[in-house]
Amino acid sequence: MRVSDFHFELPDELIASTPLPERTASRLLVIDAATGACQDRRFDALVELLRRGDLLVVNDTRVIPARLYGVKESGGRVEVLLERLLDAHSALVHVRANKAPRPGTRLWLEEALPALVLGRQGELYRLRFETTEPLLELLERYGHVPLPPYLRRADTPVDRERYQTVFAARPGAVAAPTAGLHFDQALLQRLAQKGVAQARVTLHVGAGTFQPLRTERVEQHQMHAEYLEVDSAVCARVAQTRAQGGRVVAVGTTVVRALETAARSGALQPYRGETDLFIYPGYRFRTVDALITNFHLPGSSLLMLVCAFAGREPVLSAYRHAVAARYRFYSYGDAMFIHPAQSEARA
After folding, report:
1. Full residue range of the structural domain in which residue 95 is found
2. What is the mean pLDDT of the chain?
3. Would you call 303 helix, strand, or coil by DSSP?
4. CATH code for the domain in which residue 103 is found
């Protein structure tokens, strides 16, 4: 397969640059993966679409204010985007500067945070922040919300709340699991009252989620690594749901990758560690029966995962419908609910 097989035309004006006033006011494109049929709904229609006995699995990662601006000792401007915390004072980061900083270079970030460049690890830099206060606390005070590059704007105070899910609990992500942005507590309560159970996994989304594939052939792409945790309670919930005839409904591609990583041995098992699982058409799913997801970038690994789940042609046809119907795209955009997953793609 070629990366070009997953491209579609998207007018710039359909990229949602800001969130809607209410989380659940987003539109929801409902897709029957078996037939390709589409329905235009509102996101709160999930109360009708989900059934008693279904299990909604969400990602409880919390986005940290991971972008910092500053200068090098030489005076040159620098932008730092954290990829991963290593300990209370060190991190792996992306650095944007006119000249790559060498080991031993000091950076002054946000006029209050001195940091020492320790070295490189692939495309990333290892920084040690020369402060006594833990880095997470400093980021909350000085950092900027790491909005995706395609929004083409600076973060605002609104983004502190809205580029965060209502179930965010565990700091570590530098990008939001955007399918979860559509839920509010009232909707979660209505689903619970209907008998839809909820389980939580953690996958700390990295900045690599926005990186384009750099190979012509899909199969040659190497995914970036992200940290995840799936505990024994989640595994038990999934097993119980399926035994009772319910559906495992993944809220976002990050949940799919977390569950499928934990099931790579053939059965879902507790897992804690990194994953570089790349899901594209031909992949055999083991744990997920339905998917809630936002609209993704052309040629992206996220779009390929959705195509693996529901079929390339049905998904691209649905995307063309969404463009014609003026859906809002990407992180602050509208969502899709895909069901049932193709039976031949299930173990």
Report:
1. 67-144
2. 94
3. helix
4. 2.40.10.240
